[in-house]
Amino acid sequence: MTKRTDIIGVVLAGGNSSRMGQDKALLRVGEETFIGRAAHLLQQVFNDVIISANDRVVYDFIGLPVVEDVHKGCGPLAGLHATMASAGRNDIFVLSCDLPFVDVSVVERILDNSSGAEVIVAGDPTGVQPLCGVYRQSSMRVIEGQLQVKEYSVLKLVRHMKGRVVVFEEEESKRFLNINTPADYNSAVTLLKSP
Fold first, then answer.
1. pLDDT of 102 higher than 80
2. Could you tell me if 92 and 10 are in contact, meaning their C-beta atoms sit under 8 angstroms apart?
3. How many Å apart are CA 64 and CA 81, to the nearest integer?
4. 3-state secondary structure at position 83
5. Domain assignment of residue 161, yes or no
């Protein structure tokens, strides 16, 4: 597979993990952390991959550049803003590290459906998955506008940009299980270890 050079892969790892009680990005499945899993996935598709986080030292072991938020405490929208600014003219593909079931086929399907739209994200019968998808540089003006008025919802950004949603069927919904609590984590470990 030829790696994409026009889009930069971004692992979002800047959350507070308040419901988990510890940094979700550092949770392990076997020998691999959630953040390592997401990074390795994006490295299969994109030539350049960066991490969006607010503590460079914690994620040094991944060996990838870490981009810190300019607008602290503003959630994933601030991560989009900072990584997009660091990407220069390149668009970005964002993947939250707490979506451990996303695989290369998901990323490729979104990319295959990404022409002609400014925001292209995954979706399933449970709703839109705004932290798994492509954000064009042209969406930066809307991101900056939302930050100025303290509207931090990435989902509202997707709606404002009339983003394209690449819909995955009901049986594929497991791919977008979001790990927020210790119970979620225990379920994910069991599922990821099962053949």
1. yes
2. yes
3. 18
4. helix
5. yes
Tokens of 184: 């979620």
* CATH number of the domain bearing residue 154: 3.90.550.10
| pLDDT > 80? residue 64 | yes
List, for residues 128-154, the tens digit of each pLDDT value: 999 999 999 999 999 999 999 999 999
Within a domain: 156 = yes
Give the tokens for residue 18. Answer: 């308040």
Quick one: which H or E segment has residue 35?
A: helix 34-45
Residue 27 within a domain: yes
The first and second tokens of residue 45, run together, are 């598709």
Domain limits at 20? 7-189
In the block, tokens 């003006």 appear at 141
Q: How many CB atoms lie within 10 A of CB 128?
A: 19
Q: Which pLDDT band, with edges at 50, 70 and 90, does 89 fall under? A: very high
**5-42, pLDDT tens digit by residue?**
999 999 999 666 656 656 788 888 778 899 999 999 99
User: What's the number of domains the chain is made of?
Assistant: 1
Burial class (CB in 10 A: 0-12, 13-18, 19+), 141: exposed
